[in-house]
Amino acid sequence: MPVSSTPVDEVAQDLVPIRVRVTHRFHPLFGGEFEFVKRRRNWTADRVYVFDVDGELLSLPVEWTNLAGDDPFVVVAAGRSPFRTQDLLELAILVQGLGRSRDLDSRDAGGVARITS
User: Which of 21, 42, 46, 52 could bridge 62 with an S-S bond, Cβ 3.0-4.6 Å?
Assistant: First the structure.
């Protein structure tokens, strides 16, 4: 019988369950650690599967866990900026949309502006 070239300690280390921590600050499970099952790409989403505290299979976006690594913006900002560029751009689009809907609400069906006091 052939002898394995992999040391027994390495094989045993592979059998130890990996823990995944929820890092999304607004998730109800924030800070919780769960047993890793699998990481998989579903359509365009990178997902991680873990067993929750009841032993049920739970799927989370990898970005919400410690498996995603550090956000490059957060690392470079080093705490100097509470906002990410992408988030500010999305906010600007939302605010712009609110302004447009307010303009539309102030006009009647014929496009004439209503004057209210």
Answer: 46
